[in-house]
């Protein structure tokens, strides 16, 4: 025999009254189509919510990463072979 219980309640304390629970909120227009974790939805990194809220900053960060990656090269051995 399996028994399941569910207890529900409505909070009536001062904090709950001052900060009511919002189950669902409408996204601002500039964030629609962006995700917190875009890879979970098969979307590219540029669909991350930060790209919708701070596109210039995100482009700057991407450029910095690309520039840093181009400056890093593998060390060469005495024979000239890259490691």
Mean pLDDT level: 85
Q: Could you tell me the strand content as a percent range?
A: under 5%
Structural class: mainly alpha
- Rg is 25 Å
Order of helices and strands: HHH
Count of helix runs:
3
Task: Give the termini distance in whole angstroms.
Answer: 65 Å
Q: Globular, elongated, flat, extended or rod-shaped: what is the shape?
A: elongated
Helix content: 25-40%
The largest sheet, given as strand count, sense and whether it forms a barrel, is:
none
Number of E-type strands: 0
Low-pLDDT residue intervals, each spanning 5 or more residues: none
Protein architecture, described:
The protein has about 80 residues and is mainly α. Helix content is about 35%, strand content about 0%. The N and C termini lie far apart (about 65 Å). The model has no long low-confidence stretch (mean pLDDT about 85).
Question: What are the defining features of this structure?
Answer:
83 residues, mainly alpha
Helices and strands, with pairings:
Blueprint lengths: L13 H5 L30 H5 L1 H17 L12
Brief summary:
The protein has 83 residues and is mostly helical.
């Amino acid at each position: 025999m399996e028994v399941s219980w569910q207890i529900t309640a409505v909070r009536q304390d001062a904090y709950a009254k001052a900060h009511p629970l919002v189950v669902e909120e409408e996204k601002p227009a500039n964030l629609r189509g962006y995700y917190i974790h875009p890879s979970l939805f098969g979307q590219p990194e540029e669909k991350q919510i930060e790209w919708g809220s701070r596109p210039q900053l995100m482009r700057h960060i991407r450029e910095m990463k690309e520039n840093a990656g181009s400056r890093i090269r593998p060390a060469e051995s005495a024979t000239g072979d890259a490691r």
